[in-house]
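Write out this protein's structure.
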Amino acid sequence: MNHQTFLALACMALVANGMSGAEKLTSPDGDISLTFELRDGRPTYFVDFKGKEVIAPSGLGFDLFSESGRNSFDQQGKKAAADALSLKDGFELVNTTRDSVDENWEPVWGEETLIRNNYNEMSVTLRQPAFDRTMVVRFRAYDDGIGFRYEFPGQPNLNYFVIAEENTEFAMTGDHTAYWIPGDYDTQEYNYTKSRLSEIS
């Protein structure tokens, strides 16, 4: 099989699976690996630790409330013949940027006098072409874990919105150890409990 045939078959397999090229991020020590990809236009990520999958493919995104003032989502949906209330699919990857940070900072108070802030970062810019809307997901990988956040740049078609449902998924592959506190709307001042995921109450 020549290189051109192999490349053509690889591209067809990628299209058949509905996935875009994967973007990878690793922790500074290389133990944690996060992979991001679009699956049928749905932002998806999964995480490995020392080569073993700990978070299976998990979706990202939101559902919006219908809003008919500053953003007429109903009209946008009729015009595009698509679900204007969905911020979880119909995306394409526009850009990926990367950064690394290794710095120390001194907290004003607390148990530590110096805290090291060391991580690798990957920011993926996604666009919903049906509605000309942009969403950014910024991932960070530390030696002891990963984190991410959603960002919404200023834009005419998404300048005001209300979230109806967050669709962020964490598909854990086992009954892992967790550190958690009870959910409370007005305080986070609890001692952390260490337990298996199945024991969280």
